[in-house]
């Protein structure tokens, strides 16, 4: 009887230890897979401590010449899908998601023109100039802002 109880205790400890190991390993894998590029920190672009990871690639783009866009005017949905979604469709970037009506209402309280100005000019190194679409027209940027409000369900009356 004593041996059987000792065996059960050892088995339960082993199962518990295995589960802990699996959870720890899964956590490490999630952290590793979330790293962007990894590698040697000396080869990374310099960045501000306030910069969000999702905008780091934009640093490299800022110093390149702007390639003019000569196609048909892009809709708000197209601009959003090509540029805005990089940060706004991920919860890891800190940017409000399209369906986060509370955050969008908070921004809209400052006024639609303030919001559009922040997108056009960039905002605190968190929002790149023109949301990263450097060859977007002001009309296309406004259409993207309107598209985000439409997706959030908020009526932008301005």
From TrEMBL:
<protein>
    <recommendedName>
        <fullName>Cytochrome c domain-containing protein</fullName>
    </recommendedName>
</protein>
<keyword id="KW-0813">Transport</keyword>
<keyword id="KW-0408">Iron</keyword>
<keyword id="KW-0249">Electron transport</keyword>
<dbReference type="InterPro" id="IPR009056">
    <property type="entry name" value="Cyt_c-like_dom"/>
</dbReference>
<keyword id="KW-0349">Heme</keyword>
<dbReference type="GO" id="GO:0020037">
    <property type="term" value="F:heme binding"/>
</dbReference>
<dbReference type="GO" id="GO:0009055">
    <property type="term" value="F:electron transfer activity"/>
</dbReference>
<dbReference type="InterPro" id="IPR002323">
    <property type="entry name" value="Cyt_CIE"/>
</dbReference>
<keyword id="KW-0479">Metal-binding</keyword>
<feature type="domain" description="Cytochrome c">
    <location>
        <begin position="71"/>
        <end position="152"/>
    </location>
</feature>
<dbReference type="InterPro" id="IPR036909">
    <property type="entry name" value="Cyt_c-like_dom_sf"/>
</dbReference>
<dbReference type="Pfam" id="PF13442">
    <property type="entry name" value="Cytochrome_CBB3"/>
</dbReference>
<dbReference type="GO" id="GO:0005506">
    <property type="term" value="F:iron ion binding"/>
</dbReference>
